[in-house]
Amino acid sequence: MRQIVVISGKGGTGKTSVTAALAAVARESAATAGTREGVTQPPALVLADCDVDASDLHLLLAPVVRERHDFHSGVLARIDAALCTGCGTCTAACRYGALNAPPHVAREMCEGCAACAHVCPEGAVALDERHCGEWYVSDTRFGPMVHAALGIGEENSGKLVSTVRNRAREIAESLGAGTVLIDGSPGVGCPVIASLAGADMALLVTEPTVSALHDLERVHALTRHFGVRAAVLLNKADIHTGMARQMEAYCAGHGLPLLGSLPHSPTFMAAQFAGLSVPEFAPHAEGVLFSEVWNNLQAMTTTTTET
């Protein structure tokens, strides 16, 4: 069972559209193999949407939620009004301005540092487990998907990413699915690291712009740090042919396989409006390109797992 993570150094490169497209061609490939062999195949893959701060894979996959779980991380101060004398000791100790009017605690300001509980002479402060969001196990037309929604302004998204990834791997193992396909977060921060660590392959989705080249260098350095094999998919390749050549030169100079170049096409937006992946919307156009990318990814990850 292989884990493939789709990431990008910046937002807006088309990472989620690429993830949905690969899921579509993987399903089609598995269905074709099952028909040819005359046997029922296990799911081709299990999906994990690890962009928990701004998840949007569900917009294309229309998941039907069958499990819903609360996600807790850290603590939140709570003051018992019956015990609080209003002495202001906790207010003076709080460096984050969360206790300007005790016994009220400003949730958005509380960092859970527990200083207020430590100094309160009346023992009026309790530290409750902090509810930060939810995570789900859903059914989609491409197979099971694990995804999440982090609350507004909440942190610890790296921990939530790990929760989503671990559950997706467990489901894949139980069903005999060959792949966990992970839609990672943009950038190089904690959620990306949690998405990437331990993966078998990273597909770096980029575009031919100056900022995208800079961010490709950063995210490539991250994959090297974690020892994850990487390949590149150049999206919107025709918006700046000069930068596209620079992208190709960077890949060639750093041993990064370039698995494909996609045009800047209105098909992507039209597919989104229709709630479909690109191969579903245009199977004989851009869909063919994604089939080639998926076949190349499979070949690379097979080689990686065997070695």
TrEMBL record:
PROSITE patterns in alphabetical order: 4FE4S_FER_1, 4FE4S_FER_2
Keyword annotations of the record: Iron, Iron-sulfur, Metal-binding
Tagged with keyword Iron-sulfur: yes
A Pfam family hit: Fer4_6
Domain annotation 4Fe-4S ferredoxin-type: ranges: 75-100, 101-130
Name under which the protein is recorded: (4Fe-4S)-binding protein
Organism of origin: Nitratidesulfovibrio oxamicus
Organism classification: Bacteria, Pseudomonadati, Thermodesulfobacteriota, Desulfovibrionia, Desulfovibrionales
